[in-house]
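comment on this one:
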Amino acid sequence: MSQPNILIIHCDQLRFDCLGFNGNPDIQTPHLDCLAKNSVNYNNHYTVYPICTPSRYSFWSSLYVHQHGAWDNHATLPGGYPTFPKVLRENGYRTAAVGKMHMNPVYQDIGFSHMELAEQNGTGRFQDDYHRWLMEQGKIDRFDLHHQSDLFREETTDHLYDMCQCAQSDLALENDSTEWITRRAKEQIECWEDGTPSVLMVGYRKQKTALSGGFLRYEGWSWNSGDRLLCTKEKRLKSTRAAVCLPCYVVALISFS
């Protein structure tokens, strides 16, 4: 096909050495290992900037931070800069984003025609789709508040060391952001149509502060704390375009700070 469908999976602070295929003997990431075995693994790749929002704007715009000027998580990408989602949209792609994008404003138009967002404490919290849905259920993900309050820290606090930035979530599994993001991403992929190329960017939050535990499964999508949103070989989605092993789209796993 001349215009492949594109799926971009990006993670918050997923360390390169917290993956089985990069040599970690303790963390099991079988699905990512399988994907890496049949892919290109860039083992000398560095983020352009070690802060979330600026590095995302650099990824979308292909500019260094000193060029686009968004220096921290309260900054924004000035209008007029081209981004790859805008370029794809202008060339006939259906563009969508699901999960954490960490833009300012929350629903900034950088080229995604459809957005279903799940942000963290700080900019975007309670404005996004996930938290509005969560409030409709009478729930709140209160443990996220422990980790997402400060823009910068001179040094981390003792309790973050003691708990390894992990905690048992107070939400039921079906209300967890990982489950919500996966359900919404799956729905987007099932809407892909022949003759209309699509790009979907999926952003997960929980690598930054691991608030869920154990091995989870959702209708053929399998993941653990470092292994998310990959279709199992045994149980594929009904849409043939959603099977990772089929060469109908490009899969990129990207970790941002």
